[in-house]
Amino acid sequence: MALGLGWKLKGDGRSLGPDEVVAPDERLSWGKTVGLGAQHVVAMFGATFVFPLIMGLNPQLAIMMSGIATIVFLLIVQGKVPSYLGTSASFVGGVAAIRANGGDSSEVTGAILVAGLVLAAVGVAIHFLGSSVLHKVLPPVVTGAVVMLIGFNLAPVVAGIYWPQDQWVAITTMLFTIVAAVAFRGFISRIAVFLALIFGTALSWFLDTAVGPITSKLGGATEATTHDRWSTAGVGDAAWFGFPQQTMVAADGKEVVGWHTPSFTIAAVLLVLPAVIALIAENTGHVKAVAEMTGHDLDPVMGRAIAGDGVGTALASAVGGSPTTTYAENIGVMAATRVYSTAAYYVAAAVAILFGLSPKFGALVASIPGGVLGGITVVLYGMIGLLGAKIWKENGVDFGNPINLVPVAAGIIIGVGNVKMQLTDNFSLEGIALGTIVAIGGFHLARAIAPVELRDRADGTAVSVGSTTYGDSDGVDDLYQEGYPGTPGERDPGRDRRP
């Protein structure tokens, strides 16, 4: 069917041979499909509700809107690209900058909405013009730089907000994350962040019971107070079923974020627009990965996939939700099961919507201790930054060439150091936005004026189609280097974690 809703039953729907796969337009029995959908929920769940917390948005609403965005995405790609749209981490740096400049959640979601529309427009352009135009404008040397500065710009958030709330829980949670990601193989390593969140919260409860409250400065507070590490006071009063709350201002003057309508400022929009570059790169890589796994040529729907992510982001942020992106975690589930049926993704989306309609669930998520988030974010933010280096490595970027070295070096330092350029009394460019402009503009300027021999050996002028990982803005490494099971090309033995 045109919308990809007509699934053929695979065999008897109950059993598969060792070499059999289930194509996107096929399905198993509905009982097995529900089970597969549940696996996809578990895979996306951790990052999808951790990142809204980090951005100061409502995680309950984010979970619900991720389900709605996934359904819209599947309809736009006509069921040809099986994927789940979870919360994107690429916007975290821009959101942190907006809030540091006094912006509220309404400005945050307004800026994200505009970025989503820009991403959708880029997808439409790619659909009609072809992907070669995209690779010329955003070569790997530039894309890697943008991803790197987005991640490393967040270091002050960890150091100044989360870590000081409980340094011992933070460092213990960080160590658990490292162990879970490295010591285990397969699916467990993929959900290391989710497991660390559970571990850190349980540890906070134990310390509250064993040694009593802690005295520290909570995020957004001006002075230290004595409080429980893990307070569940709001969970008991929350209803089991109901729409997420509307954003309000509490008695202490703090914003209690829920659903809301966006507002728009140019400064806020410029701070999050660099994230669009990361999303373009990531969606391109994920579509290539799915194409290799399924054996289908998905280049004709590349533009649709990028546009679908943009529409999902705009739709989610229109009601105060979080930005979305295609998720590598769910691609990993498909690699493990060899079931690529989009029917399972519709089930996962439906489950996410049901979770989002439970205020009690939202209150439980909102109660996660700041020290736990400190231990998780110190890993995740660094991973986002290092994915930029991974892009360079996999595309053979040559930093012995000054065309690549000089403008990218300047852009990264501007982004990481949060360098500020005051343009008028009321408008400035700084940090991620300014660093991105310098990296992109500087690269193309250097390439235009450089001698021909430097241009001829400048790397990063086209994205390698053999590489499936271009940066992962859900904060989790794709884990595969040059393809998924059943595709040619050598894998990095140190990163191969096939379940």
Task: Name the assembly state.
Answer: single chain
**Strand order in the sheet with the most strands:** 1-2
Low-confidence runs: 460-499
How would you describe the shape?
Answer: globular
Structural class of the secondary elements? mainly alpha
Strand content: 5-15%
How many helical stretches? Answer: 21
Distance between the termini: 33 Å
What is the radius of gyration computed over CA atoms, rounded to a whole number of angstroms?
Answer: 22 Å
Mean pLDDT: 78
Q: Helix proportion of residues, in percent? A: 55-70%
Largest sheet: 2 strands, parallel
* Tally of DSSP β-strands: 10
Would you spell out the secondary-structure blueprint of this structure?
Elements: E1 8-9, E2 26-27, H1 30-55, H2 59-76, E3 85-87, H3 92-100, H4 105-129, H5 132-137, H6 140-152, H7 155-162, H8 167-183, H9 187-190, H10 192-211, E4 214-216, E5 225-227, H11 233-237, E6 248-249, E7 255-256, H12 266-272, H13 274-294, H14 302-317, E8 324-326, H15 328-337, H16 342-356, H17 359-366, H18 370-394, H19 402-416, E9 420-422, E10 428-430, H20 431-449, H21 452-456
Parallel strand pairs: 1-2
Antiparallel strand pairs: 3-8, 4-5, 6-7, 9-10
Give your account of this protein's structure:
- This protein is mainly α.
- It contains 21 helices and 10 strands.
- The chain has helices spanning 30-55, 59-76, 92-100, 105-129, 132-137, 140-152, 155-162, 167-183, 187-190, 192-211, 233-237, 266-272, 274-294, 302-317, 328-337, 342-356, 359-366, 370-394, 402-416, 431-449, 452-456, and strands spanning 8-9, 26-27, 85-87, 214-216, 225-227, 248-249, 255-256, 324-326, 420-422, 428-430.
- It has a two-stranded parallel ribbon.
- A hairpin with a 5-residue loop joins β9 (420-422) and β10 (428-430).
- α2 packs antiparallel against α14 (302-317), α6 (140-152) packs across α13 (274-294) and α8 runs antiparallel to α10 (192-211).
- The chain is globular and about 70 Å long.
- It starts with 7 loop residues before the first strand and ends in a 43-residue tail after the last helix.
